[in-house]
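Chain X:
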Amino acid sequence: MALGYDGKLYILAFDHRGSFQKKLFGIEDEPTAEQTETISDAKRLIFEGMQLAVERGVDAQATGVLVDEQFGSDIPARAKAGNLKLAMPVEKSGQDEFDFQYGADFGEHIASHDVDFAKVLVRMNPDGDAEVNERQLGRLKELADWLHANDGKFLFELLVPAEPDQLESVGGDTDRYDAELRPELMRRAIQQIQDFGIEVDVWKIEGVDERADAESLAELTRKGEGREGVVCVLLGRGASDDKVDHWLRQAAPVEGFIGFAIGRSIWWDALKGFIDGDLERAAAAEKIADNYLRFVKVYDDAESGARV
């Protein structure tokens, strides 16, 4: 199977686990069966918002959900039944170092849900701890090789957190880090991953402030034999609408970008309103659909405007 993906992807991401239960429900320890059902029902509400968006006309073939096995309950099966693209995470939640959620059984879990994309979230700074990076790369190559031996697609979410000295060099300003240092660090991280022999189909990457950086990142992901079809989607990182809009507008016109995988920026406020009793369930689902469709429009307008 050739590397990459052909088509658009507008993914609603709600595979959050540890942060979801702690920040939304205040559950610090392993949730009970009752708590698990409460969390799962919140995720079903997010999915209801996605279903409304599809009913309102977004292309189901370009529409996907990224949802976890722990709290996803029947959502993966419902997504497949609705002809939505299904992505599911492979990594343990809330860890700085990538490792498999289900250990050596990762392949069985991927196969049992018939996922369209197996997703990992990886925090890797090329100037970070070399031993940690090496361990992560070894596990990621095992996953990539298994996926491509089994006709699977690899969705790789790359986060490049600042090292203390890097942040210090920009006066502790995270916005300056994002603008001045992170794009080059992202390029170096992608190159390191590729040089290790890890092949990715879809890169889920942090937004950049300049279109030239989006262009160079997309170009790098496709550099090398067999990578012509590799593509990128933009993540939201829980940022404000204005910030995410800007990132989308930089990336959308760039060859090699095919959409986004955005989570909290779409559903956080609506879900919090429902949990706190300020929003009825139907109103919360409508708000999630509205937010999702708005980001689709921002992306589509930026892409089509570049072709005029």
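Chain Y:
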Amino acid sequence: MQVVVTGGAGFIGANLCRALTALPGVDRVVALDDLSTGFRRNLDGLDRVELVEGTILDPSLLDEVFDGVDAVVHLAARPSVPRSLADPMASHTTNATGTMEVLEAARRNGGPHVVVASSSSVYGANPALPKREDMATLPASPYAASKLAAEAATLAYGRSFGLPVLAFRFFNVFGPLQGAGHAYAAVVPAFIAAALDGAPLPVHGDGTQTRDFTYVGTVTAVLADAVARRVTDPGPVNLAFGTRVSLLDLIGLLEGILGEPLTRAHTDPRAGDVRDSQADRSRVSALFPDLVPVALPEGLEATVEWFRADR
């Protein structure tokens, strides 16, 4: 089996490449990445992974890379709600138009299995919890709108052209290889990096907002299994397991792992951020009944260990 991972040098992509190389029957993994947010070093030691540097907006490159492949896991994106507020068109071009280019290339090249990353941000301003895939989507940022467009296009290609597709809504993925040294860092790496530097943890708002944190090892186990079994679904699938944790509780867990109290620096809430997030896990559990997700404390310990080793 030959698999292409777009965004394969990024945080989730590089972890997935590792998981795929350990999968029986996978002969070749290609990581396609423009290195705008990914890094070559994320693929160090993965001799069976070929890195192709380039953009998903290049149809001829996509045709070259997709030729003869069995599956495509499309993770390439321009991440971050704040980044999308600063440049909405750039987020749309990469996330929405880029996904269309991937789908068209898949259609031109024999219709490989296509797994696409959407986002829990598509639920947006809908206050209902837990978030079920059949509830209304109310994107609150250009990023969320672009991911909803990508998801909708993926499912439409499944219905219109018979392309075997699966669209996952990711929820606050964290773990090793996730960057912290930039203005758009996600909350877990931002907290861990600040704690290890002895700096106050940056908390946007009062810290009572909640998230459904999902360890990257759990995410990649699901993605690899989806590729191995060619799992498809006509609707979106939450890739999270219903763990609702406030940022203050997250800080408490980190204090237990690090063995010391952590100071906090509260700032105003960020525009476009969702107040609360929690997944309904029914659909993902039905599709992947044998999966046991990594518990949040265990995932945080592994992530802190990686950050310490990477300093």
